[in-house]
Write a structure and sequence with these properties.
This protein has one helix at about 40-50, and strands at about 5-20, 25-35, 60-70. With about 70 residues, it is an alpha+beta fold. Strands 2-1-3 form a 3-stranded antiparallel beta sheet, covered by helices on one side.
Length: about 70
C-alpha cells in the first residue's frame, strides 16, 4: 500500500517593490524553508503580517507549499 510521507513545507511571501516602465508590478519573494507540518493557517498569517510590518514594501501574497514523498 502506498504511503504519503511529509518532507518539507515552504512559506513564501511576495512583496510589491514597485512598478516597471509599463506599469506592471515588480515583486520580490522571501521564503522560509522548514515550516512545521502541523502549523495552523492563523499562525502563518500572524507571522506573515508581523514580518511584513518590518518591510517598507506591501505584502501581496502569502503561500505555503508542502512537499511529500510517496512510498510503497
Amino acid at each position: 500500500m502506498a504511503r504519503k510521507i511529509f518532507d518539507v513545507s515552504i512559506l513564501r511571501m511576495t512583496f510589491v517593490t514597485g512598478q516597471d516602465e509599463f506599469g506592471k508590478a515588480k515583486t520580490a519573494t522571501k521564503k522560509f524553508i522548514g515550516v512545521k507540518e502541523d502549523v495552523e493557517a492563523a499562525q502563518l498569517q500572524q507571522f506573515a503580517e508581523a514580518y511584513a510590518s518590518l518591510s517598507t514594501h506591501a505584502l501581496a501574497a502569502t503561500t505555503v507549499t508542502a512537499q511529500h514523498t510517496i512510498t510503497q
